[in-house]
Design brief:
Helix content: over 70%
Mean pLDDT: 91
Low-confidence stretches: none
Number of domains: 1
Number of strands: 0
Order of helices and strands: HHHH
Largest sheet: none
Distance between the termini: 16 Å
Shape: rod-shaped
């Protein structure tokens, strides 16, 4: 019984890891595109790539990047709550 739950949890972690990486890549590309459009719309001059890289470093430290961890946290909490309810309630 426990081995089945562990196997399910392992497959869930693998699946969530794939989803996390896809979401992270997509989120980075959207942020980079926004920075590129902002550069053009504001008519900024100077080192374009350096400005975009600074914006991406700021993004890496920001809240949106950290919220991606909820892809792991919420399903795992639901998984653990389900195991608790099914087995000990």
């Amino acid at each position: 019984m426990i081995l089945g739950w562990l196997r399910l949890g392992l497959f869930a972690l693998v699946g969530l890891t794939v989803v996390y990486f896809i979401a992270a890549i997509y989120s980075r590309s959207v942020r980079r595109e926004k920075l590129e459009k902002r550069w053009v719309s504001e008519g900024l001059e100077g080192d374009r790539e350096g400005w975009i890289e600074k914006g991406m470093k700021d993004y890496e430290k920001g809240l949106k990047r950290r919220l991606l961890w909820l892809i792991y946290i919420l399903p795992m909490l639901a998984f653990l709550a389900t195991i608790y309810v099914v087995n000990w309630n």
